[in-house]
Amino acid sequence: MQKQISVWQFVLLLYICRIFSTMTYAPAMGVGSGGVSVLISWVLSLGIGILVLLPALWLHSMSGDKNVVMLSLSVWRRLGVGIALCYFVYTMMTAVSTFAHFEFFMTNAIFPQSSTLFFIITMWIAAVYASSMGLEAIARTGAVVFAAFLVSFGFIVFASLGQVDLVELKLPLDNIWKEVGASAYEAFSRNAEFVVVLLLLPHIKGNLKKGVLAFLCMLVVTSEIIAFLILTVLGDYSATQTLPYYTLSSAAEFSIFQRLDALHMTVWVAIALVKIALYLFLSVECLQMLFPEKHKKAVSVGCCLLLFVLVLPFCYSRTAFDGLFRAFSSGIPSILLVIVFPLLIGAAMKIKKGRAEHETTKHTSVGAASAADLRN
Amino acid sequence: MKRPNTLRLALLLLLIFGTSTLCGCLKSVELNERAIVQAIGIDYDEKEDSFQVSLQIYSPDGSGGQSLVEGSLQNAKIIESQGKTMTEAVQNATLKQGKTIFYGHNRVVIVGESAARSGLKRIVSFFNSNNQARLTTGMLVAKGSASEILKTRINQGILPAEALEKMLDNSRENGKISEVSYLDIVKALENQTDDVVIPAIAINPEKEQSGSGEEQQGGPAGGGEQGETEQVQSIEMSGTAVFRDGKLAGYLDEEETRGLMWLRGDVNKTVMVASTDRIRSFSVEVYKVKTDLACRTVQAPYTFELRSHLSAAIRDVELMDDSVILNENDYQAMEQMLCRIVEQECNKAVSKAVYEYGADVAHFGNLIWQKDAAAWKRNRSRFSDQLSQVTVNSIVTANIDRIGLETREQGKE
Fold it and tell me: pLDDT for A345-354, tens place per residue?
């Protein structure tokens, strides 16, 4: 497979996609909770991230030109198809979830009087177009959006510093390590980008290990800053907010700008577009591997239509939206797709390779014996 | 010549069509069709269990000649409406005039005494769900009716709300009141232990003379004919309203308010006036304050320690005897006097707000939680009843390090 993006483009793309989830992050505050555990959990999530990505790096070292779906299909036939479908469903549902979050934000926080369908249609058209342009285009857009995010983030941080109140930082009343563990697990379960690493492996040029470490460090630093500001500026009020980072941006006043939520909204829309486009691209790629070359266009069109159809119930039904969020937050999909499947595939590849080597040795020794017999 | 691609042409036309027709997510509202809310007053009618909302709307009162906005006029009108809930009251206000109400530029929310006593939670619920509401909007409690405060004629600035906002800013800068925004209110209401404090505002009973006799828009307090001097009421900051469990418990006077501000670390700058044995009176401007309130005992009786350091500059001094000059002992006496004033003000604030009203106005509960989460877990359910066992020990130091340019030489007048 052709290597299309550099490792730094890859890092920025992952970061931008992950930041979307961080911006919707609501620290578990309220009765019995304390903010300090949230801050500790982000540091812990760095270690978890490194551990979780070890199987991906292991697969990459064994076969750098294939992603997890290709490897599963090369190792098993029917099970490989099942695994490919799992990755397809996960990436498609992540795109749907991002879409639903975007729509929720626009119709609840920004334009409460606007039509839901308006946002669905416009974003769908943009995402389908961006996805059809391919990974290279998405990655380039990601880099531009990253720059815009940095500017808006810098503004919001700078403007919020004056409102920081350290009295809001408290230890949890119950077992601190239990809360830290729960928060770290949540951070892991919401990190769909670990799956992206597994799927984009063959597309990346450069040192993947360095890239992954850079991504995790950037993520932890940003998340710590966001969590700290949410906790100290909004205090317990953040627990009542669906989108605390947005609330923070609307409380941030900077010079002549009376509130910075418009800036946040602009960047948010761009980030949502990049994330939906990337996950749509990946879901299309996962499914295309199961079909012959001549059906690839049909698969692509089918996936785009499927995205539109799936988005509708999640945008209109709160129960469906909450259910999808709970499914992702359970962490089971992430454990299966990021840890279990890659380890199984890696182990199967090792066994297969061992058998092949054994067969080769056997054939070589049999051949050598026959040649010796013939000489004799 | 290369023929243009039909598909590209179609796309281009679609783009042009799209940019000209899909230029926004909402129906556009012209500026003259918007009612820009500058201040909101909220009163509560206990008998009818309904809210009365007064919206001060920007309405330029220019002559129509050279300028649309005339600084000498009110440039605002008041819309009043009632409803069982805040939302219904505001909805009814919309029906009273043909404009779309816009809250994005609201400068201040004034909660009337009746509404404050009925509880803040019903009020903040409305603002929480309103996406135009700004978290940084200033909050005030009116001693009396909020509507009356909004109707009072203020002869400063172009907009009454702007003048009100500036009055708030000036009072904050001079250490008269704390800066309390809507965000501070909702934070305290959501907090398990903190109670709300909001600066209070009242109508000055003494009337002032006004040179302009333009009829006041929307308010009953106006009157008089153009060019005549009229009697108008003025408004003034009047201490701090203290809430317990979101309901108004009482007020702090000016001294108690500053005491509370010392405790909360809200004083940045203030003027203090005092006297010593050798100085009839002196004024200093405290230009820098470092304050730290820490919990020392996490079990009842709770002890807190306020460490405060003031840096001050002498503004004016009136000596008992003009022949003496200020010496080091005088400076020390002045510094000691400043420390004593801060301690007294803190004690007054604690005895009124904490002992009398039973309100945790200085984050006492949070400080205990920060120091010892286990102790807080054990005591939190009965902490509000144990507030009378809170003691604050003040350790105040002051340094008058800017003595001014005036010098007094012995034997010289």
Answer: 999 988 888 8
What ipTM is given for this predicted complex? Answer: 0.78
Domain count, chain B: 2
Pick from B22, B190, B373: CB nearest A172: B373
Mark whether B265 and B246 lie in a shared domain: no
Residues in chain B: 413
Using an 8 Å CB-CB cutoff, list chain A residues near B128.
Answer: 240
Pick B373's closest partner by Cβ from A168, A170, A259: A170
Q: Which CATH superfamily is domain A5-332 in?
A: Hydantoin permease (1.10.4160.10)
Tell me, yes or no, if A247 comes closer than 8 A to chain B by beta carbon: yes
Same domain, B227 and B271: no
* The pLDDT of residue A279: 95
Domain's final residue, options B252, B287, B303: B252
Instruction: Kindly state whether residues B206 and B270 are assigned to the same domain.
Output: no
With contact defined as beta carbons under 8 Å apart, do A241 and A256 qualify?
Answer: no
A192-206 pLDDT tens trace = 888 999 999 888 888
User: Which residue range forms the structural domain that includes residue B53?
Assistant: 30-252
Q: How far is B278 from chain A (nearest CA, A)?
A: 42
A192-221 burial: b if 16+ Cβ within 10 Å, else e: bbbbbbbbbbbbbeeebeebbbbbbebbbe
Q: At CB < 8 Å, which residues of chain B contact A? A: 22, 25-26, 128, 131, 134-136, 183, 186-187, 190-192, 363, 366-367, 369-370, 373-374, 376-377, 380
CATH number of the domain that B295 lies in?
Answer: 3.30.300.210
- Global confidence as pTM: 0.83
Is residue B128 included in any domain, yes or no?
Answer: yes
Q: How many CB atoms lie within 10 A of CB B275?
A: 14
* Residues B338, B191 share a domain: no
**Residues contacting residue B249 through CB under 8 Å, at least 6 positions apart:** B242, B243, B357, B358, B359
Residue of A nearest to B363 (CA): A167
| CA pair distance A354, A361, nearest whole angstrom | 10
pLDDT for the residue B311:
92
